[in-house]
Design brief:
Residues 74-218 form the DUF6371 domain. It comes from Rhodohalobacter barkolensis. It is a single chain. By secondary structure, the chain is α/β, with parallel strands linked by helices. It is built from nine helices and 13 strands. The chain has helices at residues 61-67, 75-83, 86-96, 140-143, 175-184, 221-231, 242-246, 249-254, 258-266, and strands spanning 4-6, 8-9, 21-23, 32-33, 47-48, 99-100, 107-113, 119-127, 134-139, 169-172, 189-192, 211-214, 236-239. It has a four-stranded antiparallel sheet. Strands 11-10-12-13 form a four-stranded parallel sheet. A three-stranded antiparallel sheet has the order 1-3-4, with no helix packed on it. Strand 10, helix 5 (175-184) and strand 11 form a beta-alpha-beta unit. It is globular and about 70 Å long.
Length: 267
Amino acid sequence: MKRFVRYVDQTNGNYLPSQYGRCDREVSCSYFYSPYDDHTFADQKVVRIPKRKVKPIFIQRELYKKSLANYRQNNFVRYLHTLFDEEKVNGLIKRYHLGTSTKLKGGCIFYQLDLEGNIRRGKIIVYNPITGRRGRIHSVHSLLGIEKRFYPEWRFFGEHLLIDKRKPVAIVEAEKTAIIASAYFPEFIWVATGMKATLKIEYAQCLKDRNVTLFPDLGAFDDWEQKADELSRICTVSVSDMLEVNANANDMAKGLDLVDYVIAQTN
């Protein structure tokens, strides 16, 4: 039996004739017939088709556990060893559940673990082990051949740490920055948006009723200040202008982030 998603006439809310629609069964049926594909459909009314909901595919726990090893082959972990001693590096690995990719040589897996314990996504980045510069970027879902429509909704990297209610929260863009900043400034819980565009209230419900400080990359201050207005509906939020105040023209041209600046100042 088909599960059928039908077109709706937006002028009156009624369904169009039953031949117009899409079968919602993922594997055994691919029926899809739009009224605009039917040249005999004379009454060209504005219609919409409801968005199909699919069950997201989370990363399997066994796959995740197997990746929590082989850190000598993990370029990002190797880079951390140029900054901190072994005990500190091991603490950072454990805190952020860093994985090692077997598919991308040298790749580090930055998992998005939510407050419910789901392993939502895994971004794989290959860093230079000496300079810490970012190279190739991939994802666990794409390497597993999973279609994007089955990807779970985005979450901030480090969300799982927010089970701790005692500390204020600091937000940066890059996963690398959150991890390293957590070693320099342990008075905050550090999370990362993963991308500038994902600093959105729909991904930020984990911040409800928290005290939050945003640390934008150089050049992103105005944009993140606007985002802060949106986030202020659910949390107490401020935007740090430390980089904007202290950066010189060369720093601005490079678009440095917080950790870039801190490392440059300490070396």
